[in-house]
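Researcher: Structure for this, please.
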Amino acid sequence: MSRDDDLLDGFRAQFALPRNAAGEPLVYLCGHSLGLMPLAARTILNEELDSWATLGIDGQFTGRRPWVGYAERMTAGLAALAGAQPGEVVAMNALTVNLHLLLASFYRPQGARRRVLIEAGAFPSDRHVVTGQIAWHGLDPESCLIELEPRDGEALLRADDIEAAIERAGDELALVLWPGVQYLTGQAFDPARIARAAHRVGAVAGFDLAHAIGNLPLALHDSDADFAAWCSYKYLNAGPGAIGGAFVHERHARRAGLPRLGGWWGHDAATRFLMAPHLDIAAGAAGWQVSNPPIFSAAPLLASLELFAGAGIDRLRAKSIALTQALEREIDALPRGEVRIVSPRDPDARGAQLSLRLRGGAERGRQVFDALTARGIIGDWREPDVLRLAPAPLYNSFADVHAAGAALHAALGAH
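Model: Predicted structure, token format:
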């Protein structure tokens, strides 16, 4: 694919593209951290504000989009992106809250089976959730947490090593919590392979899809994952603080004896407003809801999901691969030894992201990052020494990638 056969180019015009103080367009390669605003988000959000202003409480049940069923409006779009049955997904809360709610159900240490496997260098919230849940059960995180590191001298994890770590933990392993895409390196993993390995030893398989949903085609139902959670402000472009989401495999829908931290909104919608004292748990992932959805942080997700439906995740993935390969070629054309790509070289083993380390270490890397920013290239810096650039296929272009390569060449020459 090239700029001449980019059939998705028209979607770029449906986003607000950042500009500098002089009104000049910036090259935004930071969708892995915060996606850009769909223009329709403003319209939908204003419509909800108008409903509040003119209807008050009646907005719950009347108006353009009655609020009482708001989460259900996102079900079809999220199910398509997650590769799930509609009843297996729900829009709710924020990522870390959802992980806590899900681990309250699925991390049930008993006897020797009490250990949890995560990747070393996991996003801090994931580690905090896991250590917090372990301690909540009165156990010692130091002895119950397994953190798998790459081999010496390597930056990426090997699939065989993940399976081997699961096998070694054996009947001591209660749960695996793994990313769909590792946030620092952009490495993509196969949930089905990890779930199979976890289930072989009797453990539960859960996934943090913060950097995967809207980035890669997913097949959570067929992968046999037990649960997953995600945020919606990265590749899903739903805005800062946007409503998150969760997946629970249908086999757990009404599993007897599965504990949960219940709330009123997890009650069956048909009888929720009878206000009965007992919790009649809603079927599927909806049964893990605790509160009604925050309308103003959910409305922009509706706008974004419409764009995903129009573009199609498979076409987006094809463009994503082409964009990331084009960025890779720009980097490989730089003076030899100046930049090392940390992300996998295999396009199928990474998302829409290249993570870079620069010759000279963190100090020079930060200088080059600042120089890129001054030249209008918006990526991000992750401590201690990684510069991340992410060409998102819904709104980034091949011209963006070429501009980033030219700016990086100039910044390296100046530092």
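Researcher: Any notable elements?
Model: The chain is about 35% helix and 10% strand. The chain has two domains: 3-38+313-414, 71-292.
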